[in-house]
Specification:
The chain has helices at about 25-35, 60-75, 85-95, 105-115, 120-130, 160-195, 210-220, 260-265, 270-275, 290-305, 350-360, 380-385, 410-425; strands spanning about 10-20, 40-50, 75-80, 100, 145, 155-160, 200-205, 235-240, 245-250, 280-285, 310-315, 330, 335-340, 365-370, 390-395, 400-405. By secondary structure, it is an alpha/beta fold. Strand 1, helix 1 (about 25-35) and strand 2 form a beta-alpha-beta unit. Belongs to the TRAFAC class OBG-HflX-like GTPase superfamily. HflX GTPase family.
Length: about 425
């Protein structure tokens, strides 16, 4: 069996232009993925086919060309910009005499490098195990050996069966641990809902600038870089929005075309933040020539995780890379915000984003002036806790005069058990 490739190795890339537009991939995106994985590209071999070859994907002649390129450049790994079947990988490795990775395996490996939290590591390992479980036949020379006697394997159990059993056991163990993490996340979400704290989720194609925008709005220090999947683990921060109050902003993993299904399934608990959000900010790299295709790819993943019915605002980012584009808001015929043009890198237009969130999330507000006597000063802590005080002063009698402004639903909650008392305090 060939050892798993390591970051820093040298690769030959293989890209095929297929007649089927749905199955087509982007060569420049493959180069970015390879660079993000820390692998050096030695050469790119391209081909055109009506459909993939059943055995070698690229056909016998092209496979021999790649084999000669690998030998001449002493490459360690060959990376295909397409999904390969287990048998295709095995056949290609037999010719190339080195490790072969398909697009799915490459994305999984990048995710494995990026995961930092316990939950992220579990999710990536689960996706990898599900992917590997279909590829155990590849590269092994001992799988038909049978062994009985004492130990993990029963009488007549092959090494392949043992490997599959061990992987199944590990998958079940990870799924149980992720269920516990999901319960904790659900408790946090339920707590926020009880507190009526709205959630805004950043979604978008990988490298669209979500983390840069997140840092700009929250003043957080989330890792952001000009590479694919720079940020993997979700990050939540509280922000204050005018007429809304405390709001949760969630930065989630970036999407990509043909995101592996096992990965989507493994990250469903994390992506629940996107599904339960009050508003999605769909961040788009406006300078990317493929932005239309990227938008479509993101919406497809949102549909897959059942998050396509959440209200969405398009955020056209990176306007600093275009000429004659100023920050502005586009509205539909009814005056609703549909698109915001800004630059997260320079900060231009970010105030328009906060304005849009105010319009989208703002609850009906009420304003009162209260006169609270010295004997009722426990209300001072209550009102300060609601962060609703606009102005305050004291009368000659020592009464606390306070102007408050807060959402109607919060005021109604206060009235529920204190209506008679609060009505006495109101002076206008």
């Amino acid at each position: 069996m060939f050892d798993r490739y390591k970051a820093g190795e040298q690769a030959v890339l293989v890209h095929v232009d297929l007649d089927d537009e749905v199955a087509r991939e982007d060569l420049e995106e493959l180069k970015l993925l390879v660079s993000s994985a820390g692998v050096q590209t030695l050469a790119v071999v391209t081909a055109s086919r009506a459909k993939p070859d059943p055995k070698f994907f690229i056909g016998t002649g092209k496979a021999e060309e790649v084999q000669q390129t690998v030998k001449a450049l002493e490459a360690n790994v060959v990376i295909f910009n397409h999904a390969l079947s287990p048998s295709q990988e095995k056949s290609l490795e037999a010719i190339f005499k080195c490790r072969v990775l398909d697009r799915t395996s490459l994305i999984l490996d990048i995710f494995a490098q990026r995961a930092r939290t316990h939950e992220g590591n579990l999710q990536v390992e689960l996706a990898q195990l599900k992917h590997i479980s279909t590829r155990l036949i590849r590269g092994w020379t001992h799988l038909e050996r049978q062994k009985g006697g004492i130990g993990l394997r029963g009488p007549g159990e092959t090494q392949l069966e043992t490997d599959r059993r061990l992987i199944r056991g590990r998958i079940k163990n990870i799924q149980r641990r992720l269920e516990k993490v999901e319960k904790q996340r659900n408790q946090g979400r339920r707590s926020r809902k009880r507190s009526d704290i709205p959630t805004v989720s950043l979604v978008g194609y990988t490298n669209a600038g979500k983390s840069t925008l997140f840092n700009r709005i929250t003043e957080a220090e989330v890792y952001a870089a000009d590479q694919l999947f720079a940020t993997l683990d979700p990050t939540l921060r509280k922000i204050e929005i005018e007429d809304v109050g405390k709001t949760i902003l969630a930065d989630t993993v970036g999407f990509i075309r043909h995101l592996p299904h096992d990965l989507v399934a493994a990250f469903k608990a994390t992506l629940q933040e996107t599904r339960d959000a009050d508003v999605q900010l769909h961040v788009i790299d406006v300078a990317d020539e493929r932005r239309g295709e990227n938008i479509e790819a993101v919406n497809k993943v949102l549909e897959e995780i059942e998050a396509d019915d959440v209200p969405q605002i398009l955020v056209y980012n990176k306007i600093d890379q275009l000429e004659d584009i100023k920050p502005h808001i586009d509205r539909d015929d009814e005056g609703n915000i549909i698109r915001i043009w800004l630059s997260a890198q320079t900060g231009e237009g970010c105030e328009l984003l906060l304005q849009a969130l105010t319009e989208s999330l703002a609850r009906k507000m009420v304003e009162f002036t209260l006169s609270i006597p010295p004997s009722e000063q426990q209300w001072r802590g209550i009102l300060f806790g609601l962060n609703c005080i606009e102005n305050e002063s004291y009368t000659e009698e020592g009464n606390w005069l306070v102007d408050i402004r807060l959402p109607t639903d919060e005021w109604n909650r206060l009235l529920k058990n204190n209506q008679d008392q609060l009505n006495k305090f109101i002076i206008n």
